Amino acid sequence: MTMLVAMVTPFHTDGSLDAEGAQTLATYLIENQACDGLVLNGTTGEAPTTSDEEKETLIRAVAEAVGGRATIIAGAGSFDTRHAVELARTAEKAGAEGLLVVTPYYSRPTQEGIRYHITTIVSAITTKAPGTVAVKALLNDRGLPAGPVRLPLVPADTDLLNHLRQACE
């Protein structure tokens, strides 16, 4: 089993990015916590509040510290497809081996809009990433569904819900 950890982004007390602290944390996670890889610039890594420059600096710093010993996945999420493409290209150049991408959920795109968003991002990096595996094939190889999944409707356990409510009071 592969373990990827969503890494927090360290900052100095003045609010600036602590790249050296990020290297120390990344090294610790890989060497002492049996992590196979790190996910940077996701919501756990303060992506909504860091600049594009800080995101790139973080990826470069972590890649320098643990590159080759751990997989680096970088957030390239944006509701703006063009911005997501730029984040993806920058992440790839900075040393990320994979991307964490979000769909533009606030604008509620159609399925075709979501497909356009994702394929545009993938197309921007695929030619530069030899050995890229199609997502569908990867999911199928791992025995996972490669499309929408309909979960069965499970009736609520009212006793359990009442216990939870009481515990929260």
From TrEMBL:
Checking SMART domains in the record gives: DHDPS
One GO cellular component this record assigns the protein to is: cytosol
The transmembrane segments are none
Q: Which UniProt keywords apply?
A: Lyase, Schiff base
Source organism, top-level taxon:
Bacteria
Name one molecular function that GO assigns to this entry: 4-hydroxy-tetrahydrodipicolinate synthase activity
Database matches in PROSITE patterns: DHDPS_1
- Similarity remark: Belongs to the DapA family.
The name this protein goes by in its record:
4-hydroxy-tetrahydrodipicolinate synthase
Organism per entry: Acrocarpospora macrocephala
